[in-house]
Amino acid sequence: MPRGEKSKYTDKQQRKAEHIEDSYEERGVPAKEAEARAWATVNKQSGGGERKGGSGQEKSETAKRADRKDSAHRAAEARSGDSPNKGSARSDRSGSTSLTDLTRDELMHKAQERDVHGRSKMRKDELIKALS
Questions:
Q1: Which of the chain's termini has less CB crowding within 10 Å, N or C?
Q2: Which tens digit of pLDDT belongs to each residue from 5-22?
Q3: What processes in GO biological process is this protein linked to (predicted)?
Q4: Is the CB of residue 131 less than 8 Å from the CB of residue 100?
């Protein structure tokens, strides 16, 4: 694809770029600069040309199950009104049951506590699988 060709963009991305470009031109930005800024904005927001299926990284079934379990727990806490993490859902992850929310270092610490063999060479997804 030659540099600057827009054929790989979805219709929605092209409409968005046109709208942004028009907005810049209304503010007095030259047409060529407005177009460049518009496409830069679209690229930043959507990651460039046409995408199918998001980032391309599939979550494992174990990770999906942990996320569903965590979501169900948080929903039940919200319904009952006695959430231990009230007001600090992201700052305190100790109540979270989802391993995918933890950093690799936090997973390594949990693996060390459970004496998981080979943990030092494991990637994050492998640690999640080993701890599940």
A1: N
A2: 777 788 888 899 999 999
A3: DNA-templated transcription termination
A4: no
